[in-house]
Amino acid sequence: MLKDIFIQLRTALLAVALLAVLLCGAYPLAVWTMAQGLFPWQANGSLLIRERGVVVGSALLGQRFDGTAYFHPRPSAAGGGYDAARSGGSNLGPTAKKLVDTVKKRVADYRLENGLGPESPIPADAVTASGSGLDPHISVRNALLQARRVAKARGLNEAVVRKKIADLTTGRDLGILGEARVNVLMLNLDLDGKR
């Protein structure tokens, strides 16, 4: 009887040790090696690097841009805004007074900032936060509505800014999933001549 317990204990300990080596060592190492070999840019965070190796952000994470010369991303509910450590949405329902009031204020601010009339339709992504609060993209419509403000602030022809939007527009995934979108960081870096 005692011998059977020791056999079962030895078997269990060997199984745990084998699974620990396999699942905590060999498998992660194999996935990391394949990712580095096949998709090194994506596996390392899709970092956008300026001259002298300065990292300016990730193509996968939104960040705040202030000022009229920059395209503005979606609002963020992550911490104080675009805080990756506090990623997440507000979890407010569509009838929550706080959400309704916040969106109304954002709509008014967006119209004022971009010189739009009171009847101009505003894209939802311009006034609502994404589920993660870190969405790096905006809709093409949102970018086009900001184009006049950005062009004026930079002293550029609006057609030049619209061309940059078109050049940096990413289509639907697999041609059918999602909507066309523009990466705000890449667009702003391109306008700054740093992409």
Automatic annotation (TrEMBL):
It is found in: Cell membrane. The keyword Oxidoreductase does not apply. Pfam families: KdpC (PF02669). It is a single-pass membrane protein. Its main location: membrane. Keywords: ATP-binding, Cell membrane, Ion transport, Membrane, Nucleotide-binding, Potassium, Potassium transport, Transmembrane, Transmembrane helix, Transport. It comes from the Bacteria. The keyword S-adenosyl-L-methionine does not apply. One of its GO terms (molecular function) is ATP binding. One of its GO terms (cellular component) is plasma membrane. Belongs to the KdpC family. Part of the high-affinity ATP-driven potassium transport (or Kdp) system, which catalyzes the hydrolysis of ATP coupled with the electrogenic transport of potassium into the cytoplasm. This subunit acts as a catalytic chaperone that increases the ATP-binding affinity of the ATP-hydrolyzing subunit KdpB by the formation of a transient KdpB/KdpC/ATP ternary complex. The system is composed of three essential subunits: KdpA, KdpB and KdpC. This is Potassium-transporting ATPase KdpC subunit. It comes from Syntrophus gentianae. The lineage of its organism: Bacteria, Pseudomonadati, Thermodesulfobacteriota, Syntrophia, Syntrophales. The gene is kdpC.
